[in-house]
Design brief:
Length: 79
């Protein structure tokens, strides 16, 4: 699939990508983590509150936006 520059800059496409649901394995891959590391972050460190989960039935998913927010919250810059 070839994406033209016009389509690549379309904010509606970016919004769709931010709301894409990812399972735990895909979310870990997106963050560049091992699956067990993301499980530890979600279940132990943040007590199931970060990254913000989305449940469909009993299945756990994360949006790309929630994963990006996790990184943003944990990015520290020295002053």
């Amino acid at each position: 699939m070839i994406i033209s520059k016009k389509e690549g800059n379309d904010p509606s496409i970016n919004k769709i990508n931010q709301n894409k649901l990812r399972d735990l394995r895909s979310a870990a891959d997106y963050l560049g983590l091992k699956e067990y590391a993301l499980k530890n972050i979600f279940y132990n460190i943040y007590n199931r509150k970060q990254p913000q989960p989305t449940y469909l039935g009993d299945r756990l998913y994360f949006t790309t936006k929630a994963l990006d927010n996790l990184v943003e919250l944990n990015t520290h810059t020295e002053v």
